[in-house]
Specification:
By secondary structure, the chain is mainly alpha-helical. It has a domain of 55 residues: Helix Hairpins (Orthogonal Bundle). Helices cover 57% and strands 8% of the residues. The chain is built from 2 helices and 2 strands. Strands 1-2 form a two-stranded antiparallel ribbon. The chain is elongated and about 60 Å long. It starts with 13 loop residues before the first helix and ends in a 6-residue tail after the last strand.
Length: 83
């Protein structure tokens, strides 16, 4: 697969997880992978999808925490639950 296939999913950046997920999906869509490997790829893909979703949610929460002043300029951060 890719170099990151050996990296634990929890250690991947959003970009690396997304790139590997695209590779996994491409291989599964081609249909030229043996059944056992397809199962492993599917499981890895599910983990990668979950990681990407978590990183996006984290980023959305950080953006939502940015407060603006009266002129619409970033003025600081407000605490966000869970961060």
């Amino acid at each position: 697969m890719t170099e990151t296939a050996q990296t634990p999913v929890a250690d991947l950046s959003f970009e690396d997880a997304m790139k590997e997920l695209e590779t996994v999906v491409g291989r599964l869509e081609r249909g030229d992978v043996p059944l056992e490997e397809s199962i492993r790829l599917y499981e890895r893909g599910a983990e990668l999808k979950k990681r990407c979703e978590a990183k996006l949610k984290e980023a959305e929460e950080k953006v939502a925490a940015i407060t603006l002043d009266g002129e619409g300029n970033p003025a600081g951060l407000k605490p966000v639950e869970g961060l």
